[in-house]
């Protein structure tokens, strides 16, 4: 492997890492912290992508259009949480059925309102050329967006009063309520954050994928659920580790063979990891921490 090929594999890894992390992070917040399996996660991403694309077509600059996409998805998530999701906390199977139904409704409603596709927003920044290869600079920069998103979540949930109250609510709702925490508002806020992150993913990938269709969100759903299972319950620990591991596997096999082989290799690696680490990377990190504490 020469220098150009190594650089190409690196760019493919960064793209795969960004895709997996950004596809996963909103789902991981809602599932890992609230216990809701949101099968409509892909359609939350769809809302962000469509809102971004339609706003850009109305003349808004792309960053402003992306902001519209995030805000629209956040509002959509809050309305959904207040009307449906709040009644499903602690009812795992019911939440799966309800969100699957919401997913079907959103896909068909999008097709009715906007047709089978809408025009794509042009990808900014152009391409990087090196040797006989070229790569979209925007796709590479998405890795920076993924890292910034994880850093923002870390600061939010570990360095702010909101984060302390949110984690207290998730760990022991009754005790948190007895100490004056508005747990109902915490659940709503956490779901809104997960929705906003899904909207951010849709907004960021609206210029990077083919013309958005009603099935746009389904492209992200498999990777998101695989990464959540491999990463484990901790959003801040499991998501980046799962993204790095699965992204490296997919990038290497995609470079050596094809995108299809890369995806298959990633899924096989995920199956092996689930067998070896039932609690995911989060469980592995926690067991290592426990061993260190006991040895001190």
TrEMBL record:
Give the matching Pfam families: BPD_transp_2
Compartment annotation: Cell membrane
What keywords appear on the UniProt entry? Amino-acid transport, Cell membrane, Membrane, Transmembrane, Transmembrane helix, Transport
Its BP terms in the Gene Ontology are: amino acid transport
Instruction: List membrane-spanning regions.
Output: 17-40, 60-80, 92-115, 135-157, 186-205, 225-248, 260-277
Q: Name one GO cellular component term.
A: plasma membrane
Q: Which GO terms describe its molecular function?
A: transmembrane transporter activity
Q: How does it sit in the membrane?
A: Multi-pass membrane protein
Q: Which family does it belong to?
A: Belongs to the binding-protein-dependent transport system permease family. LivHM subfamily.
NCBIfam families associated with the record: urea_t_UrtB_arc
Tell me the protein's name: Urea ABC transporter permease UrtB
- According to its UniProt entry, this protein's organism is Natrialba taiwanensis DSM 12281
Q: What is the lineage of its organism?
A: Archaea, Methanobacteriati, Methanobacteriota, Stenosarchaea group, Halobacteria
